[in-house]
Amino acid sequence: MTSVIAYLVLAIYTLALLYITVYCLMQFNLLYHYKKHQREAEQAPAVPENHNRKNSRSMALAAASNHRHANGSRQTADVGLLLAEEEENQDYPFVTVQLPIYNEMYVIERLIDNIARFDYPRDRFEIHVLDDSTDETVDIVRRKVAEYKAKGLQIEQIRREKRQGFKAGALRDGMKYANGEFLAIFDADFLPRPDFLKRTIPFFEDDNVGVVQTRWEHINQDYSLITKLQALQLNVHFTVEQVGRMAGDYMLQFNGTAGVWRRETIDDAGGWEADTLTEDFDLSIRAQLKGWKIKYLEEVGSPAELPAEMNAFKSQQFRWMKGGAETARKMLPTVWRSPGLNLRQKIHATSHLLASTIFVFVFVTGVSSVPLLFSLGELIGMGFSKNFFAYFLVGLLSIIAVYYAANVQAPTHNKPFGKALWNFLVLFPLFLALSMGLALHNTVAVVQGYLGKKSAFVRTPKFNIQSIKDNFAKRNYLSKKLSWTTLFEGLLALYFLAAVVGGFLIQNTTFVVFHLMLALGYGAIFFYTVRHLSLR
Which CATH number fits domain 92-309: 2.170.190.11, 3.90.550.10, 3.20.20.80, 3.30.43.10? Predict the structure, then answer.
């Protein structure tokens, strides 16, 4: 009977480890396409940025200059220049900038100030603050809107009677007021640069492009260990994953913010829907199934604030993981029925949609490794070799290569190579531990998503944390609820710590490093969650 249990535990552990390995190899395939794209970009001839736009402007100004010389008067010249500028402005399509917000008193002013600094022609864009707030954010927005209206900016505060559909609902309802051919979307914690529209809108000259997405930058990356580890992971998505999918002709995703939609694309794909917590991912898939392309711009960065508080970070992770599972449940059958996708594209789309599921298998691998540790002696006695596990190292090596490329080699980083390499060597093991420590929390989210259990869209609170001097203690929006998952995270830290001690007692250290990382990961998640709860 014990041998049957031993083989059952081995089977569960091996299957979970196999899934993780396959996922890592799919990531390595994206790395292959990413590096190939980089080589091709280096070999391609340089094209001046906004070449066509500059030529158009030069021609307009030249016409004004000729008009001035022909008439010989300063007044005529001024009229000619105004006509040239007016003619040039007509070349810019009209854009609606949508800012969906909910209770963002600490960051909404800086967001509006940044959008107001866009160097796009003032008569060619409008700003709509889609404000579902229920606190003093409402008055802050009202004052800011009045301030910029007085300066001649086209800006409105749009409020709904009921917050139906959360962010997706706000974007859907906001389209009724939008006059733009294109819709730029920013979450409250973003600080886009003045040239954002001028660097993104020209890509819509390709009629097949329905979305332009930019890379997230991190204004508070060095604030704490939590923000550093988040940046490490997000850098992978905004380099290797997004560029790799684009270069490999796979499905990409709009990331919910710091991007621009062609309005026609949203309508053609069926509009914003609120039946998942990742409305951006859902609409991205539906749009691409309709034949629209997503253009990703690694070279255009959009600065934003990372969650600095553990409970805010966990709420963001819960929404992303559950929403990913909901979108997979909704869209996977449609993807596999799509005649417009080849087999390779369907396989990668499946891997993309199932990405959040990796945490389920990380959790299963961790929990099952402890009974497996104490069953290894019996299994080895029956002819099993623990060297079998060495085959799965290919997955670990693959993911190391992916994270190294994204955080050390990517051209978007401005740190010296030596410093970037040192940071990677120190942070990557800690990142693995933190990821494993999140496995229980994210597994609950994923399971709920697949089971169809609905929950509210819990937005990630931001506190205007930009430097080490800033503090989020005693701020509004901090969580004060200790969940059952947090208690279990503490118990799991003890569970794996006991496994480390048990391994030494039975003189079997096969899993000692793995169990130490699991104990560290769950312990850190538990510690920071409880500590940050006490700061309210």
Answer: 3.90.550.10
